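Our collaborator T.R. sent over the components below with a one-line note: 'Predict the complex.' Nothing else. No constraints on interfaces, no templates requested, no preferences about which chain binds where. So this is a plain run: every listed entity goes in together, and whatever single assembly comes back becomes the starting point for the next discussion.
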Amino acid sequence: MNLGPHADFIIAAYAVTVFVVAALVAWVILDYSTQRRILGDLEVRGVTRRSQRKDDR
Amino acid sequence: MAVIDLANPTRFLTLVNRVLPWLAAATVLLFAFGLARAMNAPDDYQQGATVKIMFLHVPAAWLSMMGWGLMSVAALGTLVWRHPLADVAGKAAAPIGAAFTFICLVTGSLWGRPTWGTYWVWDARLTSVLVLFLLYLGVLALYWTAEDPGRGSRAAAVLTLVGAVNIPIIKFSVDWWNTLHQPASLIRMGGSAVDPTILWPLLIMAGAFTLLFFTLHLAAMRNEILRRRVRGMRIIQAQEVRA
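Returned assembly:
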């Protein structure tokens, strides 16, 4: 594939897009595992949500 | 399951956990297909190979506006019906919309240098998209810095609805003012002005980017619901310690 005399601009545009999309994907995955871990820690300590308490009654 | 049942965060989480893997797989497949078509698309007779930047720039521009549209609907849900899931949807969409607006600005700039001879001009289209990016940052600042999340959400919702005025300005800026940016060439009276050999890869890439947006948005909404559960449980924990 020949990208012509402006190949640098095309490659830079794709590189920036890949970087930003990868950052978004990493953000949602890491945030999910962080929130799951904190919720797990709280549940181990016996902390329950109000709605769970209503269910228990 | 009725649509109204999805307004319950627990039911919504169940649905997201079921749908997300399929949506992610469809996104990857459509990107693979779209990129293969985009890389094999012919060069433009005037712009040469730089037209390949369009396959990123145009979908990112579309998503920057769609993201704000989605946030505007969510803002109505927050302010009028005060539904927590509407606020979750708005807050989750803001960083994703900001990221796609950033991609739109950078790829547009990189496309502009070889095409127009400049990275940037203060014309109506470019400036109104920059304003949209700044509005996204403003909404994020309100969400992330407010001490009281409820007040932050309402302030962000008001800013979102005020900022919605900018969306038609972006769309019609190329018609209302003399700009360096080309006029509408996809959605216009008389049909698309783009050759089918370039139009089809562009539409497939736009579909792939849209699927990516919704995949990320649903994942971010799931995270935000979990974050609010963590916050609620920490408040309960603090109350129990105090008692």
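Summary for T.R.: Chain B has one domain: 21-177+193-242.
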